């Protein structure tokens, strides 16, 4: 078996080069016509553009509806009615939960996502059944995708009396402690956050909170989260997801809060919602807050029929929302949907996506098909992937797609 994989004629941020990959890492970035050694396996990318592999910072795999039948939604007037509706609509999908989750994971991989933070519903009604499935899928997909699991009390940690179930979930192997609206759902900000951080500390877990509460209530909740994070010594281990309310208050207040968040290394995940306010990403980023993009909804579900598994689409939506039409700001979006860079160097993990595009801004605008998705130097998805695993995945991969239309419209 070849010891090295060479990928020639890659377009990396505007320059042609050859990547040399060994043991899952980039060991050399050489000339586009780098002469291989006898031991090398070689594949020619013929100018395909390299993008960093994508990370989905917030997604649900246990909420998907089947695509082969339409499940009608009815209007609701409150979040609690939505919780009830979701329970009712998902009941009919119970026997297909693994099938639907696998379909979602494959769609995410085909879109270039090789890392995902998955929130898993837990409450007294469903117990730990969803988590048991997600732990199984995490293991099954370990060679293709890095999956983090959040123990998520969708119905409210206090409201649904889910604390003992969450404690067991963390004991079973959930990676993060989740929560939702300490004020709007649990009706007790202090006790809800105190319970969350106590459990996180007890099991040495990180925290990721769904925050839908509006305006100044959201600001106050984040301020309390910062206090608890500092008291627990959890700097860099706390995420706030959504935080719609930050899009409803004065920009000066957001900038001040953003500075505190940056000081405690509290990051923010946003799915770039179009049906509600959203946190001002440019302002928070300028304040030093780490921003991560997320799909949240990957297709049809009880919350929206407009979900999609492609995180690159979310990046384009962000650029469209802020009218970022210039190359610099369009290219900047990639930092929020990946851990990697538009330019890999020796020593970097060989995690990247190859597409037919001229440059990163073009890829953001055109949403080209992901030709190959590479994780640790091995193809794991993409339109050119032949389904093989391990180093054998490089065998028989055609050098260019024969499809006439390279772009998703």
UniProtKB/TrEMBL annotation:
Residues 50-357 form the Amidohydrolase-related domain. CDD domains: Bact_CD. It comes from the Bacteria. InterPro entries: Amidohydro-rel (IPR006680), Metal-dep_hydrolase_composite (IPR011059), Metal_Hydrolase (IPR032466), Metallo-hydrolase_Enzymes (IPR052349). One of its GO terms (molecular function) is hydrolase activity, acting on carbon-nitrogen (but not peptide) bonds, in cyclic amidines. PANTHER family: BLL3847 PROTEIN (PTHR32027:SF9), CYTOSINE DEAMINASE (PTHR32027). This is Cytosine deaminase.
